[in-house]
Amino acid sequence: MAAIYDGDTAKLVEREKVPVKNGQEGTFRTKIGIALTCIGCMVGTGNIWRFPRILANNGGNSGCLQFLMVWLLFLFIWSIPMLIIEYAVGRYTKRSTIVSFQRMIGDNNMWGGAWIAMVTLGIAAYYSVIVGWCLYYLFHFMVNELPTTSVESNLIFYNFVEDSWWPVLCHFVAILFGAVSVAWGVKSIELANCIIVPIFLLLLLFTFIWTMTLEYAGRGLQFMFSPDWAQFKEPRMWVDAITQNAFDTGAGSGLFVSYAAFMTAQNGIVRYATLVPICNNVISLFCGMLTFSTVFATEVKNGSSTEEIVALLKENGPGNTGLTFVWMPILYNQINGGRVLTVIFFFSLLLAGFSSLVAQLELFVHNVKDFGVSRKKATLAVTVLVFLLGLGSALSLDFLVNQDFVWGFALLLSGMALQYLVIRFGAKRFRQELANNFSESDWPLPVIWEWIVKFIAPLEAVALIIWWIVTTIQESNPWYGFSNESFMITIVQWIGFFGLILLLNLLYVKFIKRFAPIPNDDIALPLPASDGTDKGSEGRYKTFNEETPQ
């Protein structure tokens, strides 16, 4: 039976209560709204900007198929299992990541939810900068001609990101508009995604179809789907594959803990957690095909060899950050009315990135709100914090590359925090109470999920982190250097933030809780029927007790 235990008596807490009304903080209004919001949360610059560049960076001399195989594998043995946890926890607790950990496994474990929130905050800080780039490119090509060569396009990119203050201004505007949407609550987020996501997907489909008609586009596809088996021995490829899949789908980010809080027992979380990330990864695959076909179609015409094109794919700024921004304008320049399409493309990319940014901001706002702060005040505080944290990425490409690696990689640790939550709560109990018995219409969550969460996924994360550490130390000279993606700069940031989180958790348990405990709003959740099927129990609801297990 789905319920939360009282910390002192270990008895189930049940009450008869009328459910929360659908106000601004209520639930999603439609199933299509849920689906589009979840897709909008995933689909964005991570698909069009990040995936092609990570794919290019991990391609060998012969191709990229080996990366795609590992990336796809991690979808099923990492991302989907972690997303099921997020959806189930959010729908069950109706709380943020921090309070969800507190309610389910006690005050001493709030650090797990705080870590997830902090990692996503770190991602939001530089992600908003990328969204700002989309804003700049949108207006730039409204008044300027499209580039015809990669040299011209690279010049536009470098003049913008390195020799101007535009990235800071655009970063501010992106954060500001995101804050407005978050301040209005779930209804505005749902409405925005119902408009944004279809427009973006339609334009992406048109661009993909057009790209496939270009002469020599097949050369790009041939390279993308050809293997270079020697790359399998590179730990960085495995790390990039799992972190890109987590970044793509939002697995471990806590975003869906926040959004699932607006779901009910009628929403099938296993279905959403399976189908939405699969659709998202198909979109990423299309984006990779689109980008590779564009680069090969353009450069083969210019007489470049495959080796030269492969090198060119990896040379668009530090960490290949400019790949999409350099090559998409060149693609559209080959189409009649290409400048108009370029403007529409960057407008759609802006909207898609914006929808993901809103989800990231909403997560942290939700956490602050759970401590008794009003939504508007929480939104203001988070907006200022994200803007300040993102200034480094807005002013330096190298810093942005560092933040992308450090916090993208940290999603593995966030996934481990979710696994810890399930193991402490009880994997079997979690599967039965939070997923199978709590849903009115959903796919059953199989027992194999328990094995993945308890054994396979933790082993994946630990093995990859250790492999990366050993290889990085062996190959770096000196190993303690502070380069963009070095061992030291990554570990120092992780340990620094984790130490701060543990300290705050300790202070809350020992001191703050006595004077300012987390408010208990007696949020009503549907209880299962008497037969354990959770088919709606005549208005019976459960609430959380203030006391939780330690």
From TrEMBL:
One of its GO terms (cellular component) is membrane. One of its GO terms (molecular function) is metal ion binding. Residues 532-550 have a biased composition (Basic and acidic residues). Na(+) binds at G40, V43, N47, N280, S356. Pfam families: SNF (PF00209). InterPro entries: Na/ntran_symport (IPR000175), SNS_sf (IPR037272). It is a multi-pass membrane protein. It comes from the Eukaryota. The keyword Phosphoprotein does not apply. It is found in: Membrane. Keywords: Membrane, Metal-binding, Sodium, Transmembrane, Transmembrane helix, Transport. This is Sodium-dependent transporter.
